Amino acid sequence: MTMPSDAADFIDGSLQYESSWERAEDYERRFGTGLEYYGASMGAVRGTVRNAERRYPGLGHDDVTALASELWSRPVFERRLAAVVLLQSAGRLLRHSDLTRIEGFLRSAQLHDLADPLAVDVVGPMLLRLRGQDAVRAASVLDRWAAGQDAALRRAAVLAHLPAFRAGQGDNASFRRTVRLVTGAGHGRVPAVEDAIELVRDGGAA
Asked: How many CB atoms neighbour CB 173 within 10 A?
């Protein structure tokens, strides 16, 4: 087995060990029946990812992205949350080309509790870090998300601005461009997207 496969098995087994049927039922009531739930706590998910990183040191870019995809491949809430936590932790390794993979995650996330951390804690910091042509290419991807028909991607394109404004580095012109794209003709009123715009404005955007 490759290291990512071993790590995925370790994470999955640990999450199932931390399971609670009462918590699983609570998650289902809160989030719906679109995903499966082990019933592991949020703290257990984060602790499991930290343990995996210690158990499998030296995971590089390809290892991290492959592991995230393997965890995401099964529609289990805690596995997908672990993928998000992993990408948050290893954000320094990510490249603009990884936005394609993240787009797939966003399209299938189903829940703001999975999609929003991807936008705010993974994509947003990536945009702050990228320079030159990599930054230009990433911005082009975000424009495509903002102008598309998928409301989850439009919300993510908006929320990706939040870290920059929180850090005092927000670009109001870029944010206004995103707002124009996400509210363009044919999109109609989407509360989830409007809420995201207000969140970023509350974070300092004009």
From this structure: 8
Answer for the pair 130, 167: CB distance below 8 angstroms, yes or no.
no
d(CA 35, CA 160): 25
| Alpha-carbon dihedral 20, 102, 194, 112, rounded to 10 degrees | 0
Residue 115 burial (10 A CB sphere; 0-12, 13-18, 19+): buried
Write the single-letter amino acid at 57: P
pLDDT digits (tens, 9 = 90+) for 67-121: 999 999 999 999 999 999 999 999 999 999 999 999 999 999 999 999 999 999 9
What are the C-alpha distances in Å from 7 to residues 18, 56, 58, 104?
16, 7, 12, 21
End-to-end CA distance of the chain: 51
Is-above-0.70 flag for pTM?
Answer: yes
